[in-house]
Amino acid sequence: MDFTVKKYRELLDTMIQCGYEFQTFEEFIISHKKKVIILRHDVDLRPYNSLRFAEIQHQKNIKGVYYFRAVPESWDENVIANIKKFNHEIGYHYENLTTTKGNMEAAFIDFKTNLENLRKLAPVATICMHGSPLSKFDSKDIWKENNYRSLEIIGEPYFDIDFNKVLYLTDTGRKWNGEKSSIRDFVNSGFDFDFSSTDDIIKAFQNNQLPDQIMFNFHPQRWNDNKLIWAKELIVQKLKNQVKFILKLLRK
Question: Which of 21, 35, 84, 142 registers the highest number of CB atoms within 10 A of its CB?
Answer without folding.
Answer: 142
